[in-house]
Amino acid sequence: MPRLRTRPVRDGDDIRAFFDAIAREYHECHGDADRLLAYRLALARRLLAPVLGGTLLEIGCGPGTHLFGLAGDFATAIGADLSPAMIEVAERIRRTHRRAAHIALYIEAAERLAPIEDESVDAVLCVGAFEHMPAKAAVLAQVQRVLRPGGRFACLTLNGDALWYRQLASRLGYEVRHLSSDRFVGTAEMQALLAGAGLALAESGYWRFVARGDMPAWTARCLQWLDALGAVWRPGLFRGGLYVCAEKQQAVRADAASRPFARKETVAAARIVQPVRRASRSSW
């Protein structure tokens, strides 16, 4: 397995072109695809458990692997990705999905989400994409905008505090970024970003991730040992993945705040968005 080489990018168009180029051959390259997908889906379901059955939006959905895996857990599933080629692949899969009528796809960057109405979704998911999004604060501002009060945001990303990414890789001459714009955040920075967007942290932790497809086999085995160590000791230092779950807090009405037993307002059900619409291109 050749070493990963970072591709220089100048703007959002370069990022879009990168993912367009790999869309048709995009596949799990870091281990047993079915086992790893089941692991990530189980984690996502647990984090989003309070809002299952509502409307799900996945940002940076790529070919829709996680979106389609969770579609049966939600009334409506919406995927958004800046890459037209990724959405094209996802659309072919959507057409044959048993819940095709309840799945919608948009060509749209996470920093904009123009087709998604304010407070219209119950859950936002981001898996393996946040590290590729340059304007992270803008992404989280959009997450906060589209979530209903009480809605949840679950993000599985790379752990910027991990020993491998922070120190070992550079010392051993390994590159860890696919794109020069990639950036891995640690726990403290992620919590600060969430707070800045007005999202309340519900849970954070570390998940099993080893970038086996980006390095020679012997290096990948060493990282597997480190990740296994992190499962029982100092996970923030040794585990490759970071996850967070945050909530959009319920708004307190001024007149209701003074009444201790104020009636809770019910949230209207979201309408089903018709499949595949092209949104305006992001200016990034």
Give me the secondary-structure topology.
Blueprint: H1 12-22, H2 33-47, E1 55-59, H3 65-70, E2 76-81, H4 84-96, E3 103-107, E4 121-127, H5 136-146, E5 147-158, H6 163-171, H7 187-196, E6 200-207, H8 217-230, H9 235-238, E7 241-247, H10 254-257, E8 277-278
Describe the structure.
With 284 residues, this protein is of the alpha/beta class. The chain has a single domain (12-249), classed as Rossmann fold (3-Layer(aba) Sandwich). The protein contains 10 helices and 8 strands. It has helices at 12-22, 33-47, 65-70, 84-96, 136-146, 163-171, 187-196, 217-230, 235-238, 254-257, and strands at 55-59, 76-81, 103-107, 121-127, 147-158, 200-207, 241-247, 277-278. Residues 256-275 and 278-284 have low confidence and may be disordered.
Compact overview of the structure:
This protein is an alpha/beta fold and 284 residues long. Helices cover 34% and strands 18% of the residues. It has a single domain, classed as Rossmann fold, CATH 3.40.50.150.
CATH topology: Rossmann fold
Mean pLDDT: 89
Largest sheet: 8 strands, mixed
Low-confidence stretches are 256-275, 278-284
Count the beta strands. 8
- What is Rg? 19 Å
How many structural domains? Answer: 1
Tell me what portion of residues adopts beta-strand conformation. 15-25%
CATH architecture: 3-Layer(aba) Sandwich
Strand order of the largest sheet: 6-7-5-4-1-2-3-8
Order of helices and strands: HHEHEHEEHEHHEHHEHE
Shape: globular
Question: Would you identify the CATH H-level superfamily?
Answer: Vaccinia Virus protein VP39
Total of helices = 10
Looking at how many chains there are and whether they match, the oligomeric state comes to: single chain
Q: In terms of structural class, how would the helical and strand content be classed?
A: alpha/beta
Q: Share of helix among residues?
A: 25-40%
Q: In whole angstroms, how far apart are the ends? A: 33 Å
CATH class, named Alpha Beta
